[in-house]
Amino acid sequence: MATVLLVEDDPAARQGLELALRRLGYGVHAAGTGEAALRDLRDAAPDVVVLDVMLPGLDGFEVCRRLRRGSDIPVIMLTARGDDLDVVGGLEAGADDYVVKPVEPRVLDARIRAVIRRTTARAGSPAETYGELMIDRGSLIVRRAGQDVSLTPTELRLLLVLSGSPRQVFSREQLLDLVWEHDYLGDSRLVDACVQRLRAKVETDTSEPRYIQTVRGFGYRFGPV
User: Fold this and answer.
1) How many C-beta atoms lie closer than 10 Å to residue 51's C-beta?
2) At 219, phi and psi to the nearest 5?
3) CA-closest candidate to residue 99, choices 78, 118, 120
4) CA 59 vs CA 38, 55, 71, 197: distances in Å
5) In terms of domains, do 109 and 134 share one?
6) Which domain does 171 fall in, by range?
7) Is 149 found in the same domain as 90?
8) Can you give the CATH number for the domain in which 101 is found?
9) Partner of 52 for a Cys bridge, out of 78, 110, 113, 212, CB 3.0 to 4.6 A?
10) Which residues touch 160 (CB under 8 Å, ≥6 apart)?
């Protein structure tokens, strides 16, 4: 049974989501503030964090940034609106996905299941080497110039999908389907933000990416070509 760390300051919303998630079979550890969530993270040992943006004290953006400094745990942001302020802010802070409140429990369940599948997916192929970049699909280890690269599950999944078909150009819609498993035309900002974070970790020079290349007007492909 997967465990969710639910961070929501509104008691009624928190209790409603906690009850719904428990009915769906999740273990739930609930926190009302960002500070409490960071304190409880080790004891809760969650498989995924569902994090509200608007929190008293430390807001969701800052909580996500602090999580990312020492953890690759999947983070789904809860936003009160779908505008750029919340969405882009959450993605730039390191979130893997977002949902707009009020959210249907079944929608949140689908997003949680998808992000957990990205975390636990395994493949049996041998390690691949591309210049300084090594990708081991069996152990899900990525190294650059011999040093381990810490990737979130979504960043890793994106790299695995792109590198699985070198030179093939993927549209943002294709990547949303393959990486995020959204069964609708979702928000391409998810893809662009994740590409930006992935490049910062695997590229020597992000202004001239060697591995995660943009094909203007089409999407992205894996190089070098």
Assistant:
1) 28
2) 160, -130
3) 78
4) 12, 5, 18, 21
5) no
6) 128-222
7) no
8) 3.40.50.2300
9) 78
10) 123, 135, 137
Whole-angstrom Cα Rg for the chain? 17
User: Cα–Cα distance between 109 and 99 in angstroms, integer?
Assistant: 11
Q: How many CB atoms lie within 10 A of CB 19?
A: 12
Q: In this structure, are 141 and 94 located in the same domain?
A: no
Structural domains in the chain (count): 2
**CATH number for the domain that contains residue 161:** 1.10.10.10
Q: What are phi and psi of 142, to 5 degrees?
A: -125, 130
Which amino acid belongs to residue 67? L
Q: Which whole-number Å values give the CA distances from 123 to 72, 104, 139, in the listed order?
A: 19, 32, 8
Count of positions (residues) in the chain: 225
Please give the Cα distance from 38 to 28 (Å, whole number).
15
Residues 69, 91, single domain; the answer is yes
Q: pLDDT tens, 85-107?
A: 777 788 888 898 888 888 889 88
HSE-CB at 7 with a 13 A cutoff on CA atoms is 35
Give yes or no: residues 28 and 106 share one domain: yes
**Residue 6 to residue 215: CA distance in whole angstroms:** 38
Looking at residue 20, its pLDDT comes to: 95
- pLDDT tens sequence across 141-165: 899 988 999 998 889 999 999 998 8
Place of tokens 């993270």: 41
* Separation CA 189–CA 130 (nearest Å): 27
